[in-house]
Amino acid sequence: MHIGLIGGIGVAATIVYYQRLTAAVGGPFDLTIEHADVQTLIKNNLADEREAQAEVYARHIDRLKAAGCDCVAITSLGGHFCFEETIARSSLPLVSAVAPLDAFFVNQGISRIGLLGTRVVMHTRLFGQLGQTQAVAPDDDIERIGQSYQDMAVSGVCTPEQRALFIKAGRRMIDTMGAQAVVLAGTDLNLAFDGHSTGYQVIDALDVHVAQLAALATGKSQLFP
């Protein structure tokens, strides 16, 4: 199956999607990446302009379809804020990064998770799409954490100060809010966490999405059962 990715939102997230997807597949497969604009996404996300961002995605999806793609994925958890609106316009099936997480947490025996990501992801507890898992977030510090995440995503670089902020927020959700694990619900957070010890369980939502895409690419899974 020919996989299409809407990338560029941000660039670091796109790179890690490409790296992990090719590693998960372990051989040749069909992949096309369409570059979107991160500033447009940020503006529409913060203003909750779902229809406007869905229109942007639809244009990228049309180009991916013209390139021969069979399905498409958005390489941003925060970019899923307009997922339903995008489905209504999409010329290709969309492979959600949010939908598989609930089942994954249940399978891992996790009933309460801590969220790190964009302001909207944290405020809405992953857009309210977790049906079997309770989510907590650092509500009293969401603005500072959300701005730091946005700055990191745009620059593609995580500063030591940003890394310390994210890791400390995760520790607080474990120690004082009852989270059993911290979920990196922002696809650029690998910049902060990869290669660094935290002392608590960290689950990268990107890996769950990549596993699903790899299964599709290799014919081990179907879009519609």
TrEMBL record:
Q: What is the name listed in the Swiss-Prot or TrEMBL entry for this protein?
A: Putative racemase
List GO molecular-function terms, semicolon-separated.
Answer: amino-acid racemase activity
So which domain of life are we looking at?
Bacteria
Spell out the Pfam families in the cross-references: Asp_Glu_race
